[in-house]
C-alpha cells in the first residue's frame, strides 16, 4: 500500500526543477539532505532508544571527506560520496565502542564530547580542513552526461545536482527502510522497549547498539557529503553541537520511531524557519515558541498526528 504514494513523492521531487525557480529547487535540495540526516538519527533515537547529542560529528566528517577528496585530490564524486559514508561509519565504530558501554544521559553526554573533539579538530587543523575559514568552493560533480539526456539536458548544473540528490537520498531511505523492517530492526525495537529483558534472553545488546550507531553514522556521513557540495563549501559548524540539536528537533517534531516522521520534521522546520525569518528579526524566539507549542500539542510528532487524523477519517460513521 505504501509504494504508490512513495513513488508519487519521488516523481514530484524529480519534477521540482521543471517549475523553473532556483529558490524552490534550493529549498527542496535542503529538505532532502536534512531528511536523510534526521532519518539516520532516528535509527538511534526512535528505534534503538539511544539519544545522541553528537550526531553532527558524522555529518561533518562526511562533508569534509567529500570536500577534501573532490577539491584537494580531484577525485570523482563516485569515489568521494561513498567514502564519506565509509569514513563517518569508521569514526562511529571507534566512538561507539566507548559510547554504548554507557546508558541514558551518560551515553548522550559522551556522544556530545566526541562530537566536540571532531569540531575542535575541524576548527584548528588549518593545513587540512582550512580551520575557521573552512573549505569554500567545493566543486559540483561532473554531470556533463546529464546534458545529453532528454528533458533534463537544458537544466542548470545546480538542477542536475539536485536530481542526483533526489535519487541518492531515495536509495538511502530505501536501504534504511529495509534495515528497520528487517529482523535486525525489530531487535533494535525490542532493545528500546526493554534492554534488560533482551539481554536476559541472550541478545548481545551492546553489539546491536554499536551496529545501529555505525549505520546511523554512515548515513549521516552520506548526508554531510551531499550537503558540502550543495552548500558549495564545508565549514567547522557542520560538526558543531547546534547541528546536532537541529536534527534532534526535526526528529522529535516529525515523530521519532516513525520512519518518515523525521523527514516530515525536516520539511516543517525548514519551512517554518524560511517563513519566520522573512517576517521578523526575532525569529529565534518566534520559532522556539512555535516548536514548543507543536511538541506539546502533538507529543507523537507530526507523523503521529497525521496517522491519528487518517484513522479518525476512516472510522465508519
Strand content: under 5%
**Shape annotation:** globular
Secondary structure class reads mainly alpha
Reported for the largest beta sheet, the result is: 2 strands, antiparallel
- Please state how the strands of the largest beta sheet are arranged side by side: 1-2
Low-confidence stretches: none
Total helical elements: 14
Helix proportion range:
over 70%
Mean pLDDT: 90
User: How many angstroms separate the termini?
Assistant: 24 Å
Give a count of the beta strands, DSSP E runs of length 2 or more: 2
Descriptive terms for the model:
about 325 residues, mainly alpha, two-stranded antiparallel sheet, 2 strands
How would you describe this structure to a colleague?
With 317 residues, the protein is mainly α. The chain has a domain at 20-239. Helix content is 73%, strand content 1%. The chain has 14 helices and two strands, in the order H-H-H-H-H-H-E-H-H-H-H-E-H-H-H-H. The chain has helices at 2-14, 22-45, 56-72, 77-99, 104-124, 126-129, 157-181, 183-193, 195-200, 205-230, 241-254, 261-277, 283-297, 301-314, and strands spanning 135-136, 233-234. A two-stranded antiparallel ribbon has the order 1-2. Helix 2 runs parallel beside helix 7, helix 7 packs across helix 8 and helix 12 packs antiparallel against helix 13. The longest helix has 26 residues, at 205-230. The chain starts with a helix and ends with a helix. The model has no long low-confidence stretch (mean pLDDT 90).
